[in-house]
């Protein structure tokens, strides 16, 4: 049997790509060096600098040259995805930072004001720091979140960054240099000790940042030990990544691309389910030859590629965009997995969509795809109590309501239990909803409040 990798390599040799030979990145200090932005006015570029000094900004040459239609700027969805826009900050916050930038170049003054604004943007939503972090011997286990019984999230400390930053990112606090807000751990042994202790853990999600920014040697240190018998209960390895969009060269032409693919293949052949949790926000991200090549190589290694995205105003608030994206993903052998609701953090004011609209977009998009595209779940809110799916809008006993359920929850007993909220056409998050039918609180509220008040422990360790 011919090995998989040489076949892939031969195919790559015969394919032409419009891609840079090396990775080149720009941050807020290099905005003026991005040639394509010179078509914008000085006022527009200043607005970008204002926002980029509060919310993280990073974009690479591949994205600039291949994914953005510069004839359609600023409306182009990928331009909106990576370049800061004035509306991403409130008028008050924007004016504060604009005033600072007009009056000084002192980085300490700029940073002081930026941090004041950042703290107003809910840097860690859904109780990530207060409830998700496990404790061992009364000390927090650094770099780990354990919100759901079966699934552990691990944040490898090596390069907690991404190839480019998404302007909507709910983990923006990872990238602003404040260690008190960052999840990370460089000690693979600590991860392995934790996984070995809890046999209820079946899934490990390596996340960030973007784990695929790391060199393969680091991934080897985290993943290969999981092939030992004491980790047989860890059946699934998930890797959350935007690299297929922002740097597909990671699987094609980086120096350790072949080593990475062989690592993934080795994990699969050893019996692990390896899932690439790919973030695609718009079909434009799948339009280049090199991303198709990267997908082919990953699939040849035996991994499953599942796709997810939040519903985002200015980017994909259109059922036609979602239907086209899901159809293309199915064609390429990807599995549509989640439509999320934009989280209540960072630039949410710019991107959020009312829950009623989110359900409408999801339903209309699903109607336009075949059964293979209907694997996508949503719209789902990754809220404090768990992942809450909007199943629909209905009328019961004369009252218009949202029909909701938990897809995942801090208490597994909450999962799949339907519950109802009064219909609110303006609501954009779970906290905005009120129980239907005159009820005072949702069925989970008392137990969830007790968890938040440390009166009971989240039931993830059973």
From TrEMBL:
Presence of keyword Metal-binding: yes
Essential cofactor(s): pyridoxal 5'-phosphate; [4Fe-4S] cluster
GO MF terms, alphabetically ordered: 4 iron, 4 sulfur cluster binding; catalytic activity; metal ion binding
Protein keywords: 4Fe-4S, Iron, Iron-sulfur, Metal-binding, Pyridoxal phosphate, S-adenosyl-L-methionine
Family named by the database record: Belongs to the radical SAM superfamily. KamA family.
Name of the molecule in the record: L-lysine 2,3-aminomutase
Source organism of this protein record: Nitrosomonas marina
Lineage start: Bacteria, Pseudomonadati, Pseudomonadota, Betaproteobacteria, Nitrosomonadales
């Amino acid at each position: 049997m011919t090995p998989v990798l040489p076949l892939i390599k031969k195919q790559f040799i015969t394919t032409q790509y419009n891609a840079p030979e090396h990775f080149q990145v720009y941050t807020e200090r290099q905005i003026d060096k991005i040639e394509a932005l010179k078509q914008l006015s000085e006022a527009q570029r200043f607005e970008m600098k204002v926002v980029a000094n509060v919310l993280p900004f990073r974009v690479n040459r591949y994205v600039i040259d291949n994914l953005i239609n510069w004839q359609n700027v600023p409306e182009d969805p990928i331009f909106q995805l990576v370049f800061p826009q004035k509306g991403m900050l409130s008028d008050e916050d924007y004016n504060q930072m604009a005033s600072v930038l007009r009056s000084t170049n002192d980085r300490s003054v700029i940073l002081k004001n930026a941090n004041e604004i950042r703290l107003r943007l809910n840097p860690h939503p859904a109780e990530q720091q207060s409830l998700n972090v496990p404790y061992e011997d009364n000390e927090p286990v650094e770099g780990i979140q354990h919100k759901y019984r079966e699934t552990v999230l691990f944040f490898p400390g090596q390069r907690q960054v991404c190839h480019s930053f998404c302007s909507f990112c709910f983990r923006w606090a990872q990238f602003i240099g404040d260690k008190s807000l960052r999840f990370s751990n460089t000690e693979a042994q600590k991860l392995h000790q934790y996984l070995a202790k809890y046999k209820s853990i079946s899934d490990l999600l390596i996340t960030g940042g973007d784990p695929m920014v790391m060199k393969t040697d680091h991934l080897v240190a985290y993943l290969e030990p999981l092939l030992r018998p004491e980790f047989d209960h860890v059946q699934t390895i998930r890797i959350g990544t935007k690299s297929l969009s922002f740097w597909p060269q990671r699987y094609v032409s980086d120096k350790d691309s072949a080593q990475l693919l062989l690592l993934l293949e080795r994990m699969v052949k050893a019996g692990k389910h390896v899932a690439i949790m790919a973030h695609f926000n718009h079909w434009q991200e799948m339009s280049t030859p090199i991303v198709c090549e990267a997908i082919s190589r990953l699939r040849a290694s035996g991994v499953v590629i599942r796709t997810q995205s939040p519903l985002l105003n200015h980017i994909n608030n259109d059922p036609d965009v979602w239907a086209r994206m899901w159809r293309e993903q199915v064609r390429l052998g990807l599995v549509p997995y989640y439509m999320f609701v934009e989280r209540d953090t960072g630039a949410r004011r710019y991107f959020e969509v009312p829950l009623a609209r989110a359900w409408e977009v999801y339903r209309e998009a699903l109607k336009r795809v075949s059964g293979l595209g209907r694997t996508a779940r949503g719209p789902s809110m990754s809220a404090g109590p768990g992942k809450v799916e909007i199943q629909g809008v209905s009328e019961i006993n004369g009252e218009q309501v949202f029909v909701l359920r938990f897809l995942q929850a801090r208490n597994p007993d909450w999962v799949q239990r339907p519950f109802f909220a009064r219909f609110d056409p303006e609501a954009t998050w779970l906290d905005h909803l009120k129980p239907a039918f005159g009820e005072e609180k949702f069925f989970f509220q008392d137990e969830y409040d007790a968890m938040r008040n440390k009166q009971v422990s989240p039931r993830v360790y059973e």
